[in-house]
């Protein structure tokens, strides 16, 4: 309906024109940094509210400015107060400041594949690969692909297409979101020969399977990184598998390059390689604390063969990943390993300071138990500290317009666990709590 046919007091009559709002200098500047699409979207939303009578005409430009995202992505930075250190839904490992800076450096044209001295083509990502080689001195060769699953897929495709992979039944794990290791291996053409039972497997089981099939490409050992089998169990260590007459590939999952004192049962690349593994695969964005990528570490000739395989090209990492991985390995400790090394007393001190600061909000410092998460070390309790708040703040904190905070609800209280929150973010956390307390009530949060 044309606006002049509307009743005189209808808010739609006085709704400003899109062009008029877009002429606001703040929105013109934003269009340059964010692009016109995002700005038009924000203006359209504000005009819609004005037409509905929710917004006065002279407030439309302010509302559009307030609705603009800080960057040209709908992704928001979030404070991980869940107490789950490597949280898949929150993007796993947060990068170190050094890695973020390295990404910015590499974002433009960069010498990722050029030798600036000679002007000739250089080995792609050579400095990142050199850093990885230095950090994993037991590996004769190293290669990097897009993620842990890609590393396993490449090894299987290059070594075992149309052949047999021997793997323990208890290690045929689902890694998340319905993706299963056995189906991944079969999807690139390998036949699986399962040995042992859900809870037990012996060296003799592997030996028989290898003897019975002349076409075994390798024995695969997969670390059950997201569950525990306890009770009457047995598995075969890498050192014993290495005495079989076929190569041994070990998927350690978490990406620990060397053993970590707090995670004694978590396998490391160094331990697996020293025990005789021919190839180790792992993720870069779990306990290593780097960007999403898949690490392949092992025998030099074998790794070179994998690197030259045609499928390797389809799994190639970009320059941003290479830059971030290099800084992760050579720079200061990234947030994930730094969190593992933070003394409990320091977490408690921070929780008490925050609770005192938020005294008026019913905040209380409490002991908590954090976990590594799907990234590894299942069953390992990490003593931590949290602030406890009324449960009803969970929703408002998650949807905080400045700093969304994700905590966890436990026994009727919202816990903001500090294990995975950098100390530098405590003030932002406190500010978010104050805003959440002042926010109008929201719909109840889903359980879990
Ligand atoms: C996490 C994990 C994977 C999958 O790695 P992505 O980097 O997520 O592809 C595979 N195997 C194990 C043992 C893991 O823990």
Give me a quick take on this structure.
With 448 residues, this protein is of the alpha/beta class. The chain has helices at 11-14, 18-22, 25-34, 36-51, 60-66, 97-106, 126-135, 148-160, 181-187, 203-212, 238-241, 269-274, 300-308, 310-314, 319-330, 335-340, 344-357, 394-398, 426-438; strands at residues 79-80, 141-145, 164-168, 174-176, 179-180, 191-195, 216-222, 248-253, 279-283, 294-298, 364-370, 382-390, 405-406, 408-410, 413-417. The structure holds pyridoxal-5'-phosphate (PLP).
Describe the structure using short key phrases.
448 residues; alpha/beta; seven-stranded mixed sheet; four-stranded antiparallel sheet; 19 helices; 37% helix; globular; binds pyridoxal-5'-phosphate
Q: Can you walk through the features of this model?
A:
- Helix 4 (36-51) crosses helix 5 (60-66) and helix 6 (97-106) packs antiparallel against helix 15 (319-330).
- 37% of the residues lie in helices and 16% in strands.
- The model has no long low-confidence stretch (mean pLDDT 94).
- The chain is globular and about 90 Å long.
- With 448 residues, it is α/β, with parallel strands linked by helices.
- The two termini are 47 Å apart.
- The strands form four sheets. A seven-stranded mixed β-sheet has the order 2-10-9-8-7-3-6, with helices on both faces. It has a four-stranded antiparallel β-sheet with strand order 11-12-15-14, covered by helices on one side.
- The longest helix is centred in the first third of the chain and has 16 residues, at 36-51.
- It has helices at 11-14, 18-22, 25-34, 36-51, 60-66, 97-106, 126-135, 148-160, 181-187, 203-212, 238-241, 269-274, 300-308, 310-314, 319-330, 335-340, 344-357, 394-398, 426-438, and strands at 79-80, 141-145, 164-168, 174-176, 179-180, 191-195, 216-222, 248-253, 279-283, 294-298, 364-370, 382-390, 405-406, 408-410, 413-417.
- A hairpin with a 2-residue loop joins strand 4 and strand 5.
- It is built from 19 helices and 15 strands.
- The site of pyridoxal-5'-phosphate (PLP) has 11 residues, from helix 8 and strand 8.
